[in-house]
Design goal:
homodimer, alpha+beta, 10 helices, globular
Chain lengths: 318, 318
C-alpha cells in the first residue's frame, strides 16, 4: 500500500501559482498582497452527515471546496489558498483519485493554490480551510445591514433540499428533475464573482447554507435590525415553482440549506447597479424583502399574512 | 441540548488580541504585518489513532494546538492565529469545557488568537490550522542543510514513545516514571522560542514527530545531502538513559515520534551562539551529527559501527 507521503505526492501536490512554499515542509509560506486583509474560513464535512458515504467522490471533493469558496464569497473575498485535511478509512486509490480530481478541478477554476494539509486513517472526514484576500475595509460582514436596505437573494432557493426530500421519499421527482436538483445539492456553485462585485454595494452578506430564514436571521441578529421577507418573492427554479404552494416547497425555500446562494442587503440607491450586475454575471438577483428597525425575520405570504416558521434552519446540535 | 451556536459561544469564543474579525461571520479577517510571510500548517487528530478516546480532554485540547505550534516552531515562525474544527459524537459539555480549557490555555500562553472553526457531530476528530508570521526570507525550511553543517537536537528524545511502550506492556515503568513519560506524550512542549531564535542561525529545521531518523531523513532528502548521526550523542532524559542500551530504548530514541523536539542543521561557526542560546532558553541543545555530501541518514554506534535501522518513522499508511 502506498505511504502517506506517496499519496500526498500523487494526489494532493498540484503546481501552485502564487505561493512561496507549498507542501513537503512543516508549514506552507504565503505572502498576502499589500492593502489586503486575509479572510479565513474552515468547514468540516463528515460522511453520513454532510454527504452520503457512497456519494460519488468527485462530487465530494468538489463540494468540500465549494462550501468554503461560498464562505469567502459571502465576505466579498477573492479565494487564493486552501489546505485540505483528510481522514480516510483506507487508502482507496480510486476514491482518492476521483476526490482529488473534483477538489482540484474547482481549485484550478478559481486559481486557488492547495498549499498543504494532512492525511490520516480514520472515519471519512474532510476539513478544508480557505484563505482569500479582500481590500482592507471592504469585507462584507453580517453586521452591516441598515434600516431601509433591500434584502436580495442570488439565483434560486430550495432545489438542493427538494433533492433530499426526494431521497427521503417525501416527494417523487422525475429522473430529470432529480438530476437537476441533485446537482444543486452535490455540486453547489459558489457565488465568488458576485461576492467580489458586491464590495462597496452590499451592506451585509451571508451565504445560504442553513436556510434562508436562519441565515437572514444571522444578519438581523448581528446588525440589530429586523427583516421583512415576501414568500412570493423568494426566487425559485422552474422545479421549485411546481412545489411553490405546497408545505414541502415552502419549507425547502425558507429553511432548506445547501443552496449556497448569497443573501445580502443593500441601500435602494444601488438597485440599478445590481440589476446591471445580474445581467453581467447572468445570475438572477432578486429583491425579496427589506430591513426595518426591530429584530428577527418576518416572512409574509401573498395575502399579507405572516408565515409560521416552525421549520427553522438546520442546526447540527439542535 | 445546546445548539452548535451556543456551544461555540460558550467554549470557543475567547477574546482576541490582534484580529480584525473573529468568529460569528462567514470568515475571520486578519492582517499580516508588513514584511512578514504567513506560515500555514494544519494537523488532523483522530481518536484512537493520535490519542486515546478516553484520554483526559484537557490534554487532548492542549496537544491538538501543541503539535501545530511545533510545526510553526520548525519554520521559525511566530504563532499568531488558529482555527479549530471539531467533530464530536455528542455535545458532552463537560468534555467540551475541559478540551476548550486545554486548547485555550496554550493559546493564551503563546498569544494565539482562535479566530474561527467549525463544530459538527461525528466520530471524534480534531482539525487545527495554525498561522504564524516569519520575516520574509528567514523561514527555516527542510531544504537548507549544507555539507559541513552540524546536526542539532533540542531537549531529549524517546520519552513519549517509552510511555507508549509501557502502555503496550513492552516495558514496566514505575508510576513516577510513567507520569513523567506520559506528560511528554500527552502534553508536548512546542519549541516556539527556539524556532524564533534559530532564524539566521539554522540552515534547516524540522520537528521530530515521526522519529529522529525519519525526520532527519526528510531534511537530507529535501536538502540532497547525507547525515551521519551518533547514537551515543542522541540526548536522553534520565529515564531514557536507563533504557539506552536496550533495543526498546534505541528504537524510542531513533524512531519514536511524539517528542516534538526540533532537529536542525547549522554551520559550525554558530556553535558558541547555540550554546549561549541553550543557556538562555534553559533548553539543552545537543550536537548529534553532521551533514556530508551524499544521501540518507547513517547512525553510528559507540564502536563506530552502523546501527541497523529496521525501525523506520511512523507512517500512517505504511
Amino acid at each position: 500500500m502506498p505511504s502517506e507521503f506517496e499519496l500526498i505526492a500523487r494526489y494532493f501536490s498540484p503546481p501552485t501559482d502564487h505561493t512561496i512554499l507549498a507542501g513537503g515542509d512543516d508549514a506552507a509560506l504565503i505572502e498576502v498582497s499589500p492593502g489586503m486583509a486575509l479572510a479565513v474560513s474552515t468547514d468540516m464535512l463528515v460522511a453520513g452527515r454532510h454527504f452520503f458515504e457512497d456519494a460519488d467522490p468527485f462530487s465530494i471533493g468538489l463540494k468540500s471546496l465549494a462550501v468554503n469558496l461560498s464562505d469567502l464569497a459571502a465576505m466579498g473575498a477573492t479565494p487564493r489558498w486552501a489546505t485540505l485535511s483528510l481522514a480516510i478509512p483506507a487508502a482507496d486509490e480510486q476514491w482518492l483519485a476521483a476526490f482529488s480530481s473534483g477538489f482540484l478541478s474547482l481549485a484550478r477554476r478559481y486559481r486557488v493554490d492547495l498549499i498543504g494539509g494532512d492525511t490520516t486513517r480514520g472515519p471519512l472526514t474532510i476539513c478544508v480551510q480557505i484563505m482569500g484576500e479582500v481590500p482592507q475595509g471592504l469585507a462584507l460582514m453580517r453586521s452591516g445591514a441598515q434600516t431601509g436596505d433591500d434584502v436580495w437573494v442570488s439565483g434560486t432557493l430550495g432545489d438542493a433540499t427538494l433533492a433530499l426530500a426526494h431521497l427521503n421519499g417525501e416527494i417523487a421527482l422525475s429522473p430529470e428533475e432529480f438530476e437537476s436538483a441533485k446537482s444543486r445539492l452535490e455540486r453547489p456553485e459558489a457565488r465568488v464573482a458576485l461576492g467580489e462585485a458586491l464590495r462597496g454595494i452590499a451592506s451585509a452578506a451571508i451565504d445560504i447554507s442553513d436556510g434562508f430564514v436562519a441565515d437572514l436571521g444571522h444578519v438581523t441578529e448581528r446588525s440589530r435590525v429586523r427583516a421583512i421577507a415576501h414568500l412570493e418573492a423568494i426566487p425559485r427554479s422552474p422545479l421549485g415553482l411546481r412545489y411553490k404552494d405546497l408545505p414541502v416547497g415552502q419549507r425547502c425555500a425558507l429553511a432548506g440549506g445547501d443552496d449556497y446562494e448569497l443573501c445580502f442587503t443593500s441601500a435602494p440607491v444601488h438597485r440599478a447597479r445590481l440589476e446591471e450586475l445580474a445581467r453581467r454575471l447572468q445570475l438572477p438577483l432578486t429583491r425579496a424583502g427589506r430591513i426595518e428597525a426591530g429584530e428577527g425575520v418576518l416572512v409574509i405570504d401573498a395575502q399579507g399574512q405572516p408565515v409560521s416558521l416552525r421549520e427553522r434552519g438546520f442546526d447540527h446540535f439542535g
